Amino acid sequence: MEKNNESRVLTYVGGILHFYGVICFTDLQELVRERIGDNMGAVALRDILQTGVSQGRFSAVGDCYYDLEVADVEWVLAGQAKRDEIGYRPVSEEEAQYVAEGKLPLLWNENEKEFFRWLVTLCGGDAERAALLLLDYEAQIRNNLEPLQLAQEVVAELGLSESDEVRQAAAKVVALYKHVPLWTLKGWTPADVLYGD
């Protein structure tokens, strides 16, 4: 396989794992085949995936590959198994490229952007700090941190003490939680799955 196609596969797999957290080889092979259109064999794909693991792009356990932010592979797989009725959220190569380039804010939906703007205000206009906080909060949500726990963390981290600020923070966290793509939902948000919006 030529290097250009290998790079394309690794970029796409990195994007898939950002949204799905964990995926086992058979499903991954099918998604790569559908998106990239290359009929590479299992051995060739495994070789490429091993390159990604050795480069520290993602990791593997058994026959599954996972995003480096995943704290508990088995928990993600169990959550996905409970949602057998939903398929994986489609991930475009453009989305995968944004992940590879670290341009995650370009993937944010309107609810994430609203939360970011709120954070920027609370961070005194420091957009870089706000973006880092949001990315950290989303990783914690994907790793099963409950909204109440996250709200408490946000309140403490931002030094909010007024009761109105605390209530607003809790409401913002709950709204964010509904619109973060979750690994256990195969890249869909709770709002996508529960409300179809």
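(the above was protein one; protein two follows)
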Amino acid sequence: MHKARTGVLGAAAVIAAGGLVAGCTAAATPEGWTRLEKGWLAVDVPKAWVEVAMDQTGPYDVVLQDTESTDDAQYQLAAATEFGTETARATMGTLDAQAPFGALDGDGGLTELDADGDLDLWRWDFTFDDGAYQGVSWAAHDPATERTVVVHLTGQELPEETVQHIEDSIEVLTD
């Protein structure tokens, strides 16, 4: 589990966190979950979630949700499996300019997490659509390989155990 160093930033800086990823060395994938490995990203996702095609541009090349119908989905995970080479904090600035969720109505601020090794890791908690949706995003950067990945998890009510397991399982692949 990660130790957190919290720093609440202004709204503009928080929006910069639009896509954040946690990085750590993952343990064995538990029952009910499956390991997704694509590009530079490895992360556990609920086994029942399905990959869906999204009509969007940008760096997000994997979108999973709890149902095939986007209109009926309660949870969605979007990932940029090869985001670039900037640090996790710098990546948040890039994401701010992209505004992936539109106007935000609340945020819990940015948190820099202690991760295994030298991984640069940030988390952002927020709400949008007049509080109807929660979001957690992570950005992780491996300075040895200069690889950065981004993961967003959104839903109406995000179960803390799901959020924590995803956070604990995300890693930047070095091979």
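Reviewer note on protein two: The helical segments are 11-15, 88-98, 160-169.
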